[in-house]
User: What shape does this take?
Amino acid sequence: MKARLWRALLTLAGLLLVWQGVVMLGDLPPYIMPDPLAVGVRLWRDAGLLLGHAAVTALEIVLGMLLGTVLGVLSALALGYSRRARRWLLPVLIASQAVPVFALAPLLVLWLGYGMGSKIAMAMLVIYFPVTANFYDGLRHTPGGWLDLARVMAPEGRRWAVLWHIAIPAALPAFGSGLRVAAAVAPIGAVLGEWVGASAGLGYLMLQANSRMQIDLLFAALLVLAVLAVGLYFLVDAGLRRLLPWHPANPATLENG
Amino acid sequence: MSVAMPPGSAFLPLSVSLRGARLVYDDLLLFDGLDLELVGGSLTCLLGPSGIGKSSLLRLLAGLAPRGMSGHLHDGSGQSLRHQVAYMAQQDLLLPWLSVLDNVLLGSRLRGEPPDRSRALDLLARVGLTEVAHSRPAALSGGMRQRAALARTLMEQRPLVLMDEPFSGLDALTRLRLQDLAAELLAGCTVLLVTHDPLEALRLGEHILVMNGRPATLSALPELPGAPPRDPGDPALQAAYRAILRQLDAGSR
Assistant: This one.
């Protein structure tokens, strides 16, 4: 753990050094690329402003994740459980992926307004497919031996019991992969929504800063957003590891091996 | 190992009869008109080369008939076999997220019955897994996992136990020990054990059926002296072993 922290710090220091080097060697003016120190000062001075907007974006991401996950889980269960759902829902699901979700952002802002609703919907839409597809895939690939065993043990075909005791737990690792992807893309959805039209949030702040040539503020907002996104990913990852300690492909067990 | 009532004592011996079994797989006729009789309360070994259809026959008995398979199946009194069968496969089929104890209790969970933990713990004690009852299967060796699967099979308290090469993935010594344990604990059950290992069949089988040829036929071996588990060094066993090999060899031509 300690070694990991050191590695992270060292990587960060290296990146800052490269950044500083690019600014110095390229002789870049601050309105193109401010140096790390200027951004650091901006971070410190405008901490309140940045945190306020970050809170808005974080809330949009978390709510979008929650709603998208719930919707994805329900869709995957319906697809896994009912042939009719597969026949009707699956083509729609696949066709929906042909439409670039980001192209829907203006429509969502039109329908749901400039507030948080349209950003939550955006985050929800971008994570819906990875969550549904991964979980459904897991539900479809329950090892046949386990299902045979269940059929011999309970021949009366209690499908929900098999689903609850065998198929769903067996699909949790796949669901976990979907959730990791979701954690990585949900911030993209929220920020994109903010770019199209918003009155708060890090994406909004970045656009404002950009048009006012406050490039150091733009960079500061970008940094906060990166920390937010990385933090979310690690939180989800840690939660999944704790939830699925039995899963052999768990990265923790791989690293310990 | 403590001497206790065999789990099979909870029911009367069940004899099983399968008539006119037929299996077509990929337009290939594996067997047709096959009859199989299992004597109630005894262990029958079904021996034959790989790919002959042994496992399919066992799956038919288990109610897991593959496509292209048919046959008339009933017990001695003409009843269906549903709820009378327990099944143990070559893979232990333990669920990795459940403790060993919860794996043993899986059947009752699936049927929505209240789990009988004390009986499950008792069975785990008899297969020597008391210490790992609350561990996950990943912490267990191959032999221990298969013993857990045996405990789960016994927990079902079914008069007919179907075993599909349950010991073939184990090393020689572990296999011998597990064979002894299974023979002891399954006393009273009607058992069909599918194997491709003639020695295993000779060691454990009260009746031995050899399945070979295409379409496959079944033939019974003459009964061996002594009660199973038999000593693999016994000359009578060695002679029978050679006879089986000749029979299998003749059938493959």
Q: What stands out?
A: The helical segments of chain B are 54-62, 100-104, 106-111, 117-126, 142-155, 172-185, 198-204, 235-251.
